[in-house]
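Structure (tokenized):
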């Protein structure tokens, strides 16, 4: 597997999401409070397919989703990272994240998003990344804003309207996350 295999932040470490994370991911995917903004609860089979799709992303693109763990507790926090998606007919790379409810409200989603953006620009040399949020998901919009993204419009994703957010390499170079 090529690409960025490990990520570390002040409070987290991450490895490519894989089979060893199935139990933690299944628990997350079966929690309605987590999945209400992520397309709904997923079955065990759908979660396994999700992992297989992620492994394919790593093989074909050199990036994908990471499983993030708390450094102190060595416990699964959530998943996040970079994945190629089609937006308005064009391939783009999305920054994505989802956390177990035990870790909500602690700034870890922002930490995950910032680490993913840094990897996209500094390691993969991508020119731009995007993110999507449901219009009613204020918490996720806060994360995306703190990571430097700017809202650029709306798109249909998963059968629902989402805000589309973009961040270019040039804007990232001028962005100071400590300013938020």
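Design, position by position:
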């Amino acid at each position: 597997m090529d690409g960025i295999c490990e990520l570390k932040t002040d409070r987290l470490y991450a490895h490519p999401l894989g089979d060893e994370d199935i139990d933690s991911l299944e628990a997350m995917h079966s929690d309605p409070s987590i999945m209400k903004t992520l397309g709904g609860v997923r079955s065990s089979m759908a979660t396994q397919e999700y992992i297989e799709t992620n492994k394919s992303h790593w093989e074909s693109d050199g990036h994908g989703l990471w499983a993030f763990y708390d450094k102190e507790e060595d416990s699964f926090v959530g998943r996040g990272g970079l994945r190629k998606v089609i937006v308005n007919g064009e391939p783009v790379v999305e920054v994505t994240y989802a956390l177990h409810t035990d870790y909500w409200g602690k700034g870890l989603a922002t930490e995950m998003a910032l680490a993913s953006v840094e990897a996209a620009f500094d390691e993969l040399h991508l020119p731009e990344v995007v993110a999507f949020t449901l219009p009613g998901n204020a918490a996720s919009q806060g994360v995306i804003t703190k990571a430097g993204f700017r809202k650029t419009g709306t798109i249909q994703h998963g059968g629902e309207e989402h805000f589309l957010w973009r961040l270019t390499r040039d804007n990232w170079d001028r962005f100071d996350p400590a300013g938020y």
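Reviewer-requested clarification: The CA atoms of residues 39 and 164 lie 16 Å apart. The chain has one domain: 7-175.
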